[in-house]
Amino acid sequence: MGDSHHASNAAAPADAADNHAAATFIDRWQGTTASELATAQSFVIELCQLLGVDRPHPTPAQDYMFERPITFWHGDGASSSGRIDCYKPATLQKMLAILCADMDRGGFCGALAKDVLHFNG
Predict the structure, then answer these.
(1) Terminal CA-to-CA distance of the chain, rounded, Å?
(2) What pTM was computed for the model?
(3) Which end of the chain is more exposed for a tag (fewer CB within 10 A), N or C?
(4) MmeI-like N-terminal domain spans which residues (predicted)?
């Protein structure tokens, strides 16, 4: 009975491989000094490979892509054009919700969420 308990706590081979792949990814990107512009797409593509999800790709609906055009709406009523590095609507909304859950809603995150969620559709 004790042996089966210990066996359930041991990492399965797939888990060990996943952990190694994640550690390798972190080691590769940790401390990167190149600019965001130079590395963002490579980072997202490698992250998608690590997670086993589809990479961004062009679609007529522009619903999962790099550099999606948006309009930022500012608190003073002004607007400016911008781009989202990697755009996937439901994922972006989930990410913002997670970020905002741990931050002051009146601070930077609230302003970011307001700006990002007003995109050109």
Answers:
(1) 59
(2) 0.58
(3) N
(4) 22-92
Count CA atoms within 13 Å of residue 72 on its CB side: 12
Residue type, 2: G
Residues making up the chain, counted from first to last: 121
Report how many helices (DSSP H) and strands (DSSP E) the chain contains, helices first. Answer: 5, 2
CA distance 42 to 115: 25
- Strands 79-87 and 65-73 turn out to be antiparallel
For the cut 60, the answer to whether the pLDDT of residue 29 exceeds it is yes
109-112, long-range: CB within 8 Å, 24+ apart, which pairs? 111/75
Select from 67, 73, 74, 80 the least CA-distant residue to 36: 67
The per-residue DSSP string of 29-52 comes to HTT--S-HHHHHHHHHHHHHHHHT
Q: Where are the beta strands (DSSP E) in 1-121?
A: 65-73, 79-87
